[in-house]
Amino acid sequence: MLKIAPSLLSADFRNLEKQIRLIERGEADWVHLDIMDGHFVPNITFGPAVVKAVRKLTKLSLDAHLMIEKPERYLKAFKNAGVDRLTVHVEACQHLRRTVQQIKKLGMKAGVTLKPATPAKTLKNIMPYVDLVLVMTVHPGFSGQKFIESMLPKIREVAGMIRSSGRAIELEVDGGVDEHNAAALIRAGATVLVAGYSIFSRRSIPSAIKRLRNAAQA
Ligand code: DX5
Ligand code: ZN
Question: How far apart, in Å, do the first and last CA atoms of the chain sit?
Fold first, then answer.
């Protein structure tokens, strides 16, 4: 089952409650939260306090993508803020397996993600432990960037690794996703589409979500 996860990074922060009601009306599945620290990526976004406020606004599953150095320092803070799925970058973790196991021990689903330049084979040893793999299709840091077409073979490769693991692992794609590339992403094996700009920049946010879902299933 395809899931759509709108990324709040492109939302209008003047009224998050209104934005959340709109994505609920569009039948979004998860809320994608991009956490940036100004070190691992050049941008800074928001942290556990804002996530906690979002938690109070919705029952949708909260999918946090940590683009921060030493993410192991903040696992508990995001759990306490109400996160359901916590994804860390393999490039940011010194002890990836330990971090993934800590996330699960705290009662969250654990995800791992790769920058565009990091090869899929980096995930080989961690596959037995993860619930989700996120493939970045832009360089992490900003919303509204162009989808990197050459990531499609990597998505197929990760999909193959998931199949051979025999486990139910979600394959999430993040960066420049829109109604033009959605179908190709699903064909390549994606099960979750993150989208910021292509949802929040549209006049009607609920229709943008529905359009993306229809395009993906076409
Ligand atoms: C980029 C973030 C993405 C981004 C998606 O670093 O991880 O989640 O906000 O936004 P769009 O869909 O606009 O590329
Ligand atoms: Zn993201």
Answer: 14
